[in-house]
Amino acid sequence: MAGLADALRQFPPVAHAFAYGSSVFRQEGAPVSKDRMVDYILVVDCPLKWHTANLQRNTHHYASYLRSLGPSAVTAVAENIGVGVHFNSYVPWNQQILKYGVVSKETVLRDLREWTSLYIAGRLHKPVAHLVEDPDLLVANAGNLRTAATCALLLLPECFTEAELFHTICGLSYSGDVRMGIAEDQRKVHRIAQGSQEPLRALYADVLAGPPAVRAALEFEEDSGARRFLQDTSPGARTEMIASLPVGMLAPLARLAGTSGLVAGSAGSEAAVDPGRAWEVGDRVAHSPQCKELILGALQCVVAASSRRQAVSGALAAGSGNAMRYLAAKVSKAWKT
């Protein structure tokens, strides 16, 4: 990880950082490009202060109009238009091309705990290379992984393979993404799951022995090298699993299932869920013949909204030249597959 971490030296200090994507983890069959970017997420305590310092150090990383408007404009575009993440793309460094997103720790923690956008939480469903570690974020991400496993189990049948489990987990944050089918590789989820089998096993080893597995009465068997699972898909088991989902999923589920009054109030900066109402939503969805469709619909509600916002924010952050260059590269990559 030392090589990946070296790039962080050019930036002001960060609370947490990770690298991700096909330049870090192999994706089976992915087209190779000399312009492939190395992707980073930088989690900071205060984006305004961080961008103020970074604009002094790395002015050329930003679109020209944002340099003129200053750090307040950078953070305003990210937080008021997007989902809180500002990206600088096509940054040359040490014979590499970097793309880095900057986001507040508060925003990341809320997404990990509540699935407010699944923008960062979804990236962390897949293996990443953690370069700087924040203890609060790691604890919250453990819960995020449990939620990802729970959601995947709800979308899977009674009997399924390990490959199907990991494919479902990797696909959660792409459900409803406005980029899919236009500027994203249609086989991207398959490539991530196939190319990261061992890292995925390591990432979810504890999770698949924890609460999600207990609620689903998960059983594991290995036959001739094939890893298979059995789970309890009864309404009783599924009610408990659905009720354990975070508010970001339960709120759209409540609307789709025809219930209301789910969010009871606020606990600090986080939405609080009335346990009784969560159980009511879980019970109604679990007993519905469209249980899987309702879960998938709730996922699509979350991802579609956040991906639309971030697409606009990303284009504004990149400026017209880089935005067109990035879109052209994405479309070219998608059409080659």
TrEMBL record:
UniProt pathway annotation: Phospholipid metabolism; CDP-diacylglycerol biosynthesis; CDP-diacylglycerol from sn-glycerol 3-phosphate: step 3/3; Lipid metabolism
| This protein's UniProt keywords | Lipid biosynthesis, Lipid metabolism, Magnesium, Membrane, Mitochondrion, Mitochondrion inner membrane, Nucleotidyltransferase, Phospholipid biosynthesis, Phospholipid metabolism, Transferase
Respond yes or no to whether keyword Endoplasmic reticulum is given for this record.
Answer: no
Q: What is its EC number?
A: 2.7.7.41
Q: Which GO terms describe its biological process?
A: cardiolipin biosynthetic process; CDP-diacylglycerol biosynthetic process
Its EC top class is transferase
Mainly localized where?
A: mitochondrion
Query: Does this entry carry the keyword Mitochondrion?
Result: yes
Which cofactors does this protein require? Answer: Mg(2+)
Source species, domain of life: Eukaryota
Q: How does it sit in the membrane?
A: Peripheral membrane protein
**Localization in the cell:** Mitochondrion inner membrane
Write down any Gene Ontology CC term.
Answer: mitochondrial inner membrane
| Pfam families noted in UniProt | Tam41_Mmp37
Query: Cross-referenced InterPro entries, in alphabetical order?
Result: Tam41
The protein's GO terms of the molecular function aspect are:
phosphatidate cytidylyltransferase activity
Similarity field: Belongs to the TAM41 family.
Q: What is this protein called?
A: Phosphatidate cytidylyltransferase, mitochondrial
- Organism of derivation: Pyramimonas obovata
